[in-house]
Amino acid sequence: MNNKELAKKIEQATKEVSFLRGVVITKSVDIELLIGALITNYFVLSDKHSKFSEMVLSDPYFSFGLKINILKKILNKIEWNPYNGFKDDLDKIQRLRNRFAHSGMFGFDGNLIYDKGEKPMEIKKAKEMYGEFIPLWAKVIEELNKIFWHIIGKPNPFKKTKDGENSLKKVSQK
Question: DSSP string of 125-164?
Answer without folding.
Answer: EHHHHHHHHHHHHHHHHHHHHHHHHHHHTS--TTSB-TTS
